[in-house]
Every structure is written in C-alpha cells, then in structure tokens.
Amino acid sequence: MNIVLIGFMGSGKSSVGRVLSDKLSFEFIEMDVLVLQKSGRGNINEIFEKDGEPAFRKLEQEVAEGLQNKNNAVISTGGGVVENSVIMDYLGKNGRIIFLSVPFAEIKKRLKDLNDRPLFKNKYKAEELYISRESLYDKYADIKVPTDGKSIDAVANEIITAIKN
Ligand code: S3P
Questions:
Q1: Ligand 1 binding pocket includes 32 (Cβ within 6 Å)
Q2: What is the C-alpha to C-alpha distance for residues 124 and 130, in angstroms, rounded to an integer?
C-alpha cells in the first residue's frame, strides 16, 4: 500500500510526506521532482514558460503511470493531479488518498515569499483555482486531514492513526 498526499499548493504535502515516510520507513516520492527530471528543465516555472502547462500535465501523467505498481511509498503529488482522473486512477490503485486541507488565507501566508509556483503568481487566480479544486480534493480523498494550526509531526501522526482504522 502507498500513501498519496493530495492538496493545494502550500498545503504541506512535501514536508508532511517526508516526516511520514520516515516514521513508516516508506520510500518518499515527490512527483514534482520526477516531472522536473523528465522535463530536462531547471525548474517548474521554466517548464510552464517554455513548454506550456499541457506539456507539464502530460509529464505528470506519465510519472503517475510509472508509480502505479509502487508499494510502501509515500507519494507527494502536485496540487493539480485531481484535475486528471487518469492520474487519480493510477495513484488510487494501490494507494490511500489523504487530503491535506488548509484555508486559502493560510496558504497565501505560507507562499508569500516563494516564487516557484507558476499558478500562484496571481493570487486572485490562485484563489479561484483553490475554490474550484476543493470539491475535487474532497471527492478523491479517502481521508481528509485539516492541518491548520497543527505541527508537521502532529499531522503525520494523525495520518498514521487514520490509516490504521
Ligand atoms: C501545481 C502545483 C505544484 C506543481 C505545479 C502545478 C498545481 O505542486 O505541480 O506548479 O497545479 O497546483 P505543489 O502542489 O507541490 O506546489
């Protein structure tokens, strides 16, 4: 079984995923890193600028396809995977899907000084995206974990307890 973390940009998928994989002695896999490797570009902004978002989404799907037979891995996804049902099928095959939910106001604070997310450059558009995706995260989640005000460690422990039940 794998644990698949979904949620909006800045929801803590990578930080929680790393801690969780340590606690469970699972492999930690970050989809964005694999997409970046496949792209041959230097960073995610560059993929969006030079190749376009559809090219990024295609690579993302290829990466997900390659992960469907993984086992004992914590997979941190990109915030957009829920917009592609094929990706969600691949990830759900052998995975429990955990939605890390955070209010948009908190996400805005967390990403304030970061410039590495092409879809967060315009905060108004990002908020629209957040609103339009909320129901998708809910739809795919086996378990929803509200994380606001909790430490990374506490969120990881909550996930461990939830998957045992
Ligand atoms: C995206 C989220 C990013 C990255 C890309 C697109 C999105 O990942 O995959 O910039 O569509 O929400 P994080 O959720 O890790 O920031």
A1: yes
A2: 10
The pTM score is 0.97
Other beta carbons less than 10 A from residue 74's beta carbon? 27
* Cβ–ligand 1 contact at 44 (below 6 Å): yes
Indicate whether residue 78 lines ligand 1 (CB < 6 A).
Answer: yes
Q: What are phi and psi of 157, to 5 degrees?
A: -65, -40
Asked if residue 3 lies in contact with residue 95, where contact means CB atoms within 8 angstroms, the answer is yes
How far does the centroid of ligand 1 lie from the alpha carbon of residue 63, in Å? 14
**Span 96-132, pLDDT tens digits:** 999 999 999 999 999 988 888 999 999 999 999 999 9
Bridge partners (DSSP) of residue 74 are 3, 28
Selection from 70, 72, 104 nearest residue 90 by Cα: 70
Collapsing DSSP states into helix, strand and coil, what is residue 27? strand
- Contact 9 CB / ligand 1 (< 6 Å): yes
Calculated CA dihedral for residues 48, 50, 55, 56, nearest 10 degrees:
-30
pLDDT per residue as tens digits for the range 32-72: 999 999 999 999 999 999 999 999 999 999 999 999 999 99
Residue entry with tokens 């955070």: 102
